Amino acid sequence: MRRILLTVEYDGTAYAGWQRQINGLAVQQVLEEALAEACGHPVTVTGSSRTDAGVHALDQKVHFDTESGIPPEKYPFVLNAMLPPDIRVQEGREVPADFHARFLTSGKIYTYRIWNARHGSALRRNTFWHVPVPLDEMPVREAIPTLCGKHDFAAFQASGGTAKTTVRTIRAVDLSIEGNEWILTVSGDAFLYNMVRIIAGTVAEIGLHRLGADAFENAFETKDRLALGMTAPAHGLELTKVFYPERAFTEPAAMRWHE
Questions:
Q1: CA–CA separation, 95 vs 198, rounded Å?
Q2: Which is catalytic among the residues 11, 52, 86, 214?
Q3: Please, is 201 exposed, middle or buried when counting C-beta atoms within 10 Å of its C-beta (0-12, 13-18, 19+)?
Q4: What is the pLDDT of residues 17-53, one digit of tens each?
Q5: 45 with 32: CB under 8 angstroms?
Q6: What is the pLDDT of residues 154-199, one digit of tens each?
Q7: CA distance 184 to 6
Q8: What is the CA radius of gyration of the chain?
Q9: Does the global pTM surpass 0.90?
Q10: N or C: which end of the chain has fewer CB within 10 A?
């Protein structure tokens, strides 16, 4: 048996999220079915992030075990001939037998996109959240630096989250505004359930003057979900990059796994 790591890109619009489920078609199911046909045996894949319905991914990492003799670098060519056009495998490589796509991550970058214009965009409807009322940039730029650093993000987790600890470290937050496009990029060691969507929803409400620029600081102090804004729609979110320490590819058994 060999363990293979794939880099997968997908448009999540048509799917009920990454993870297999009984009430909808998931990206995981489509990928596993293609892999089973290619490898000649049932395959179970493990993803680095369990993206929700409608969420997109540019750099989802998945690992699986196989007895197939397909060279790792050939998996993109084999699978992309079988997969629908909204799922694409960009890279394949062999990794150590105890490598784990989820537990060995050292960080992730998420991107959230807002289309801030009176009318929606036909071409951006699946990848941008349409906010039709003008957003004020200044209080948002005042607020977002307070997210950086190590904090207890208990208020930033939607109900249903199962993390053992709510302490996380945000390494960087960047807001880029070009015309009507607001692009929010958040980099951190790990994220809670719906954490980035809650940050994006709060950014919008700060920009609309429904919340103050101190909203994030207040949420850290009170740990109250109600101190923050709405959970922004899923379709504006993208898993942009997943990071692993280099030693994870040579000595993963020595790594400390974390949720």
A1: 34
A2: 52
A3: buried
A4: 999 988 899 999 999 999 999 999 999 999 999 999 9
A5: yes
A6: 999 987 777 789 999 999 999 999 999 999 999 999 999 999 999 9
A7: 26
A8: 19
A9: yes
A10: N
